[in-house]
Design brief:
mainly alpha
């Protein structure tokens, strides 16, 4: 851990951590949506 003052640590680390979490959630949602679309496409191809 870097030894900054608590104020500096909070002002820098917390927003980047929140951004990383939000980015990871968005990425996971996107992957799930893509997987669902792929499964739907494969099901349609399989029916033909």
């Amino acid at each position: 851990m870097p030894t900054f003052s608590p104020d500096l640590t909070l002002s820098l680390d917390v927003p980047t951590n929140i951004m990383n979490i939000l980015f990871n959630i968005a990425k996971a949602k996107n992957l799930r949506a893509q997987a669902a679309a792929n499964a739907h496409l494969m099901a349609q191809v399989g029916r033909k």
